[in-house]
Here is the input.
Amino acid sequence: MFSTQDQNLNMQIDALKYAGCEIILDEKILGKSKERPELLKSLENLSVV
Here is the structure.
């Protein structure tokens, strides 16, 4: 069973795919962690373009 947040994320991902997005990254931060691995990946992708 998915939570409401998961369902909204799935709907957003579906909409992005429908719009033609080829790279979709999602990030779930738990607790006090300040690490943002998906943000770093997205910034790396921007620098390649």
Remarks:
- Residues 25-49 form one domain.
- The mean pLDDT is 80.
- The CA atoms of residues 5 and 26 lie 12 Å apart.
- The radius of gyration is 13 Å.
